[in-house]
Design goal:
Layout (H helix, E strand, L loop, with lengths): L10 H11 L1 H9 L5 H41 L14 H17 L5 H7 L2 H6 L7 H6 L14 H19 L9 H15 L1 H10 L2 H12 L8
Length: about 230
């Protein structure tokens, strides 16, 4: 990039933007560059850029995960509303999530379907079904949920750990929090790996649209004002 193409610094504009976003929110970004406002704002913009890039992959992971788990639980309990099976005893957290969501859906749909429930339940709900809570290892993982991951050959615990940490990462992005200090290349590899356990085809499709490597490669130039901020 030649000098004519480099982003220009506008201190007055940067100051106004900082006030609009809040000094407190931007303070950690400025601190990463010895208090420099303009560079801190560029890092903030890059944090939005990388979060936006990750959103698509996390979207694919969450949708493919819940559909795969739902499919195997239908087969195991022989009913689409498997959460009402008398053979299943959900832990208190999961049971409350079901009852609360049923009440919410009843306000929006005359006859809510199992598909409405699956789409509405949080990623945390699905990840919790992979935990050791309530003997889920025996009643869910071994007879049913391991089949949701046809390309995984390990035990439940490390897979649950991966999903638990990806849920936390997804929540940081959803709540517009800082992720620039994370090992983002490792986060990216983890998403691709777990999605691959579920569906290599979906993984191949997601990677065609994946902007994370490009965004990661831009960080240094964005912060050095050698490349424009964008999100």
């Amino acid at each position: 990039m030649n000098s004519a193409e480099r982003p220009t610094v506008n201190p007055a504009l940067d100051h106004a933007v900082e006030l609009a976003i809040s000094v407190e929110r931007l303070r950690p970004y400025r601190a990463a560059f010895n208090g420099d406002r303009s560079t801190g704002l560029r890092l903030y913009a890059w944090n939005i850029e990388i979060s936006t890039a990750f959103y698509g992959l996390l979207h694919c992971l969450e949708v493919v995960l819940r559909n795969a788990m739902h499919r195997e639980l239908i087969a195991h309990f022989d009913r689409e509303d498997w959460w009402h099976s008398p053979k299943l005893r959900l832990d208190l957290r999961s049971a409350r999530a079901i009852s609360d969501m049923e009440a919410d859906l009843a306000r929006s749909y005359a006859t809510p379907t199992p598909g409405h429930m699956v789409a509405a339940l949080t990623l945390g709900f699905w990840v919790n079904l992979m935990a050791s809570t309530n003997n889920y290892e025996t009643i869910l993982w071994r007879p049913a949920l391991h089949k949701s991951f046809p390309h995984y050959r390990g035990t439940r615990q490390p897979l649950h750990r991966d999903l638990y940490h990806l849920r936390l990462f997804r929540n940081r992005i959803a709540h517009h929090e800082a992720v620039h200090g994370r090992h983002l290349a490792a986060d990216h590899a983890s998403i691709i790996r777990v999605l691959g356990y579920l569906s290599p085809e979906a993984t191949q499709w997601a990677r065609k649209h994946d902007r994370v490597p490009e965004a990661l490669a831009r960080r240094a130039d964005v912060c050095a004002a050698l490349a424009p901020t964008r999100f």
